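At this stage, I wrote out one protein's amino acid sequence and its backbone structure tokens, and that material follows here:
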Amino acid sequence: MNTLKAEKRSMDIKAKKLRREGYVVGNVFGKKIEGSIPVKFQKLELEKFLKKAHKGSQIMLDVEGTQYDALIKDVAYNPVAGRIDEIDFQALVSTEKVHSVVEVVLENHDKIAEGVLQESLEEIAYKALPADLVDEVRVDVGDMKIGDVIRVKDLPIYEDKKITIMTDPDAVVVALNAAHNAAVPEPETAETEEEPKKDE
């Protein structure tokens, strides 16, 4: 399991000031933690770490020497500034089921000779005990034909008795549609609707 180091954060220092100093702020919460633990991370270290982990990943969080089996619960990105504003973790309890998301990874899309692959779900919500958490679900789309649809209930994770899927079982994960090369006709503009205004 990947380990991420964090420092406790003093709430006297504003998040904005910490960001200017090269930190990302965050919180650790959980059933056995009173309130939450405010933490901070070195920005560059965290960005490097998130190249191999993401929302829904189970990690080992080291807060100044105290180890937490934790789940990356939420990552707040600021697209305008191109940075992570905040990251939240849930400290896990081995006997308690936790809500999480699993990332959908499509495989073998290069084998599709015709049609357009449309991915409708990038993550699936579920709950499970910490020992049964899943990081990603791989979907082989190499044998799909035009008109084929893969739904949540078609995935192996749906059959796993240790996991309770929270996403609609009939929700489409990925579909292979016919390619439409013809130009799509432009919808009629509002101008035609605005013409009968001469009576005013």
